[in-house]
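User: Please go through the entry that follows and flag anything odd:
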Amino acid sequence: MVKRGLQYKHLIQFALLILFLTQQQAFAQSLKYNITGSYSWYPYFIDHQAEAPGMIAELIPMILSLAKVEAEILDLPPKRTNNALETGLLDFDIVSPSWFAKQDLGPLFVKSTPIIQITEYVVTLPENLSQYRDINQIRGKEVGTVRGYLYHDDQHFIRADFASEQELLKALDKHRVKAIIAGNYPALYWSTQLGIPVALAAVHSDGDLVFRLRKEHAALLPAINQAIATLKANGNIDKIIKKYTQTQIS
């Protein structure tokens, strides 16, 4: 009985060692990511702004550091980002399930717990607001979108792709399109910067930003989720949000 007990003890110790080594290997992985599918996504990502690079640009390193996950940024053009995730060149990005049809990220990915809330609107000039109060009013119409962005219902409208939200606002002002899809913060920011009055019409999507992580790295999710929970509990996520949005009208 003593001998058998020792064998069981050694088996348990061996199993714990394997589990420990597996976890350490997972945490030692270096994940590759691209900040955004756009060249500038204010206030989530702001290119060439080292002191204020944007909410997501600041939060990703904080989350990964707490989770003890190494990562590196690959500088890819926006149109290559989604394909790079599909092929495994990139390991994760930050998205909202609300951008996907039926909120399905696909079989290759797992998602983290929510990081921050994000809402997108149909945005138009104030004089056209009545034409877009209902989301169904964009059906079959040309709508300004950002090249490389995901839209859960783009089979129901005609995409007119532009390089960024800034270019979308300019297109509205020049009457190249009558409506665009943009987040409330980007739309209001560029409205102020460019001096172009806009109206937030129907809500297009309402959800949360999460890590979209390739399934082969799913072992990292508990650590990432715990890091997100910690940053919420200690107020750091709220501080980052206020840093970039406190001067904007909700």
In short: The chain is about 35% helix and 20% strand. Residues 19-28 have pLDDT under 50 and may be disordered. The radius of gyration is 22 Å.
